[in-house]
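[Q] Does anyone have a clean structure-token version of this?
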Amino acid sequence: MSAADDLQVIISGTAIHMGSNDLNEQNYGLGLQYDINTHRDWIPVINLASFKDSNDNTSRYVGAGIKRRLRLKTDSGRLNLDLGAIALAMKRPGYNDDKPFYGAIPFFSVSNDWGGINVTYVPEVEQDALAFWYFQFSFKLLTL
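[A] Here you go.
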């Protein structure tokens, strides 16, 4: 099987915060994701995005990680379940004196040949920060 890399557009959507309704949960934004050699079981990932964060500020991140792809056959074609982690550098107004900060987060996604849903869990990392689930949609732009 030959190598194939996928370039996807990421549309940021919603965050669901654990324990509060006072934060912005409509985290709209755009990004890109590059999956390297998607025919393998372990797929390196590079991504970047800009989105409206929980405090209505524009946040940006760039990340790299790896995911394990499980391929499932269905009556309607192929379905992928990806489990992985991303290390990222992020910049958020009003946090860390507006300097970049670093972290690593787990994610999973369900996708087919044209798109998918990405789900990330962000744990409580400090006393005033709530844990939340973060949802994105991905759409394949091209295969290289």
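[Q] Thanks! Anything notable?
[A] The radius of gyration is 16 Å.
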